[in-house]
Design goal:
Blueprint lengths: L5 E6 L2 E6 L10 H16 L5 E6 L24 H20 L4 E5 L2 E3 L1 H8 L2 E5 L3 E3 L14 H4 L2 H10 L2 E3 H6 L5 E3 L4 H13 L3 H17 L2 H17 L3 H13 L1 H10 L5
Parallel strand pairs: 2-3, 3-4, 4-6, 5-7, 6-9
Antiparallel strand pairs: 1-2, 7-8
Helix pairs in contact: 1-2, 2-9, 10-11
């Protein structure tokens, strides 16, 4: 199946999806998000596919949503709240396709999985990380919030608040310790381990796998998973579209010197802490 920013490959009952913008660390742009939706619709409709492996090309799983502004890219601080809310809702709806997919999705996480990509990785059913992985949700440092608030359901309260309120990143072993990923393997063994797990799932009764995934999801939905998404959408719409001194400075540097300079300014503020 030809895509522009996504590789789609069938191997017997296993479907491989690879985020394919390696020159941008697989940043999630409008095209890639649209292609993910199309791919998940195709996978859901294909009775021969029993499990999915999701990974990224090149050096990273994904650096998160693409914040580099091209033609037609919205500036949240200059976008009406209702318009930005719809924009965030589309991201949520795409990630929920993974949540609701009747086939398990295995995340093969290597390199960076940051911000929105960290949320995409967490919504997968099984998360296996390379020992070179770096994970976190640093978007608060750029004046943006997490659109898909799954972290409180992935790890303990203390660590969730520390990570989301500081924007810190962690390595793979810390991510395993706090429950963000299932396990960590040597980098060169990552795909073999994901394939071994996927093949195991293909040998199980397909109906049993489907119903078990639904049962586990329903347990988290009863604990407030979906209502959390709804409330978070409203709060993050307010945060993203607000004009703060930090965001004004970030935008001024970006407009004058470019995105790389703005990111360097952002990161330099935290270098000594």
């Amino acid at each position: 199946m030809p895509f522009q920013h996504l590789l789609y490959q069938r191997e017997d009952a296993i479907c491989h999806l690879t985020l394919n913008r390696p020159e941008k660390l697989n940043a999630l742009d409008a095209i890639l998000m649209s292609e993910l939706r199309e791919a998940f619709e195709t996978i859901e409709a294909d009775p021969e596919i029993r499990v999915v492996i999701l990974t990224g090309a090149g050096r990273a799983f994904s650096a998160g949503f693409d914040i580099e502004r091209g033609p037609g890219t919205a500036d949240p601080s200059k976008t009406p709240a209702d318009v930005w809310r719809s924009h965030l809702q589309s991201h949520i709806d795409t990630f929920l396709m993974v949540w609701n997919l009747s086939k398990p999705v295995i995340a093969a996480e290597h390199g960076y999985a940051l911000a929105g990509a960290c949320e995409l990785m967490q919504v997968c059913d099984i998360k296996i990380a390379s020992d070179r992985a770096v994970l976190g949700e640093p978007e608060i440092r750029s004046g943006l919030g997490p659109p898909f608030l799954i972290s409180p359901f992935s790890m303990g309260l203390a660590k969730v608040k520390e990570l989301l309120l500081t924007g810190d990143t962690i390595d793979a072993h810390e991510a395993e310790r706090i429950g963000m990923v299932s396990r960590v393997v040597p980098h060169e063994q990552l795909m073999d381990e994901c394939m071994r797990t996927a093949r195991k799932i293909t040998l199980l009764p397909q109906l049993g796998v489907k119903m078990t995934k639904i049962a586990i999801n329903r347990a988290y939905e009863e604990m407030g998973f979906l209502s959390t998404m709804k409330h978070n959408l409203e709060l993050m719409t307010q945060f993203d579209t607000a004009v703060t001194p930090e965001q004004e400075e970030f935008n001024a540097i970006r407009n004058e010197k470019g995105l790389r300079a703005a990111l360097d300014w952002r990161d330099a503020r935290f270098r000594d802490v």
